[in-house]
Amino acid sequence: MTRPTARVLALLELLQGGGLRTVGSLAERLGVDERTVRRYVEHLADLGIPVETRRGRYGGYRLAPTYKLPPLMLTDDEAVAVLLGLEAGRRAGLLTAQATGADSALAKIRRVLPAGLADRLASLMAMARYTAVERTGAGPEVTVLLALADAAKRRSTVSVAYTSWDGRASQRSVDGYGLVFHNGRWYLTGFDHRRAEVRTFRLDRITEAVPTDETYEVPADFDPAARVLSGIAAVNWAHEVVVVLHTTLDEARLRVPGAVGQVTEVPGGVRLQARVDRLDGMARMLAGFGWDFTVEQPPALRTEVLALAERIRTSAERGTD
């Protein structure tokens, strides 16, 4: 959808809110000048949408009182799926930087639903509570997300403007192998021509994505999600940890998050190699698994495990004679 078309629809959305809207207020909301607002109103009229004009100092535009959108024919199951899907995406951070799109989409759907169903859904949204923490981190620009997705599908090398974690800006050519959403963030993984290796980029650090005429092939059996998780796990954290978990490889793969580290089968169990910032946190994670384990490195992790065991023992004995 082109930007002018999107703004014409945004104007229609504002007018559907009811009442008289001044040209100045509409121009401010849409980010255009007043002459452009008048041109958008003409576009709506060409589409057969009755916009009434009031001239004069306190004039403006409004929709004809008799104009109504047809009801959106959704079953109860469909309506609940759509509304809760939008709400879940917003809370999980799945949406783009323009997260207000979820709110406006919800408002549009509610307005065109049959009154009875709309009221019941409003009650559901008002009464629903969530145990998961709402993520509020910055998402990618919608134009960037869509451009990267389209380029990856067509196997088209893309030129991206990227800002690294330390603020360094660069222009890179990337063969996008896949887009991955993990832990509240979007990632692009693929071949970075500048570094001549497969790398992972956070989409909220990409400000521009322009497809090129170059094409590529994705390596056989490449798993974008696994690559992103292994890349996150390989970040240069403060401590490198190696622990043998006395369990099976299948159980370890099921319960050890991929972003924590890599697991490989060894005699007597599974070796977990991870990088962490805090050893006390790693000790709590190992205790939470419930498996016996052997710490290979670093020795300081053994100290943290023993300290945690002592705190647990003291807590268990508290209040006994």
Please describe what this structure looks like.
With 321 residues, the chain is α+β, with helices and mostly antiparallel strands. It is 43% helix and 25% strand. The protein has helices at 3-16, 23-30, 34-46, 76-92, 100-112, 115-127, 142-154, 224-233, 249-255, 279-289, 299-317, and strands spanning 51-54, 60-63, 156-163, 169-182, 185-192, 197-202, 206-215, 239-245, 261-266, 269-276, 293-297. The chain has a 5-stranded antiparallel β-sheet. A hairpin with a 2-residue loop joins strand 4 (169-182) and strand 5. Helix 4 (76-92) packs antiparallel against helix 5 (100-112) and helix 10 (279-289) packs across helix 11 (299-317). The chain is elongated, with a radius of gyration of 27 Å. The protein starts with a helix and ends with a helix. The model has no long low-confidence stretch (mean pLDDT 84).
Topology of helices and strands:
Elements: H1 3-16, H2 23-30, H3 34-46, E1 51-54, E2 60-63, H4 76-92, H5 100-112, H6 115-127, H7 142-154, E3 156-163, E4 169-182, E5 185-192, E6 197-202, E7 206-215, H8 224-233, E8 239-245, H9 249-255, E9 261-266, E10 269-276, H10 279-289, E11 293-297, H11 299-317
Antiparallel strand pairs: 1-2, 3-4, 3-7, 4-5, 5-6, 8-10, 8-11, 9-10
Helix pairs in contact: 1-3, 2-3, 4-5, 10-11
